[in-house]
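Q: What structure does this chain adopt?
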Amino acid sequence: MKKSNYEFPKEFMWGGATAANQLEGGFNQDGRGLSIADALPGGKQRFEVVQSPDFKWQIDEQKYNYPNHLGIDHYHNYREDIALFAEMGFRSYRFSIAWSRIYPRGDEKEPNQSGLKFYGAIIEECLKYKIEPVITLSHYEMPLTLAKDYGGWKNRQLIGFFERYAKTVIESFGDKVHYFLTFNEINSAMQHPVMGQGLVPSNGGNDKQNVFQAWHNQFVASAKAVEIAHHFNSKIKVGCMLLYATSYAYNSDPRNQLANLQNNQDFNYFCGDVQIRGQYPAYTKRLFSKYGFEMSDLEITEPDLQQIKNYPVDFISISYYMSTVVEVTGISNEQVAGNLMGGVRNPFLKVNDWDWQIDPTGLRIALDELYDRYQKPIFVVENGLGAKDKVEDNGKIYDDYRIDYLRSHIKAIGDAISDGADIIGYTPWGCIDLVSASTGQMSKRYGMIYVDLDDQGNGTMKRTKKKSFEWYKRVIDTNGRMLSSDNLKY
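A:
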């Protein structure tokens, strides 16, 4: 077999990714309002808590721990953190803006100037090191008031609130920032509408019709953000962001093959089809009828559909951590976990410390499938390994397992580029340790920079470079060429 030579595009945007609600802290400082993330307790049972009919977006510090409130205090340490990113060689840094730091309740007429000043400083710090900012407008952190008082994204009023927020951000920073993402992992609401849509059982989260109405409202809001950006600065590119989990049929049984086709349509493609192609796909009728309603049951107007058609996104961004298997015949009931979703265990794959299946080939498949379907540039803005890192007696963290994971997935991206896919960048998740979204833990570490904090918020917050830091630095320095001869035990 011919050996691969990895040569990434000259302008390939190597970097890393974070989210405000998972690292910033400063949750009640300088006029910031509460977000839905502030009300999510830490721990592996966080989704069980919010699925309770009694959960009504109340913060109970007597009963629960809230690691997001502190994060890693990036709010006060962003200069040190960005300097470390620059030392690693980042060409881009994907981060999110906390909506409630700009509009504390979400429904105000005027923005919080302290919030705009903070993100302006982050952007300037990035540009000082020639790091391209890539900004997510909504990353699981909508203002808490919009969930509590307005019922989340099922309420059409949120379209206008988001439009005002997006206009403020884009007009404030769009002369210096050229890449924006609208809604993080928008399709994750199929399993967990709490984070992306602000929906829990007490405000209609168990009713799929509400989820699809919320999606429609987000599709319109996203298209309005595209319109605002294009009119403000023609150089700005706006992308959607999908949680992509390559899906396999368990075997060649036609029932599993059909179920897998429909799983791909319903989960991996539906939100992308609307945001990228600019219209609802042909299988929408089947999908809606699956949950007992029709398109006419949703509040969808002709101007909405025209907005979606006129302003599709410019590029696709994805998170990719694991693949999934579809089995509907009852042959196998063995389950594994995953990024906000699980599935049937794939006997050909290993799993990480949290039982997520590791499948770099699945990333190559994902990129080939997406580019073939949409013919638009793709940005891999999340990918990484959550693991329990150990600090040795000498203070070092030897995370060879993370290097192995990143190496195999970066090679998969290189292979997809060789296949013909247009991949514009790679920002692995949690380039610095932060609070996990799925478990609310610090002990589930993704970063190439270690942060001395435990799940209860105890520690010095000292930043320490892991072994993966120097390895990834070399990858960027060589624009991926080192992967052609990289030893497994670098």
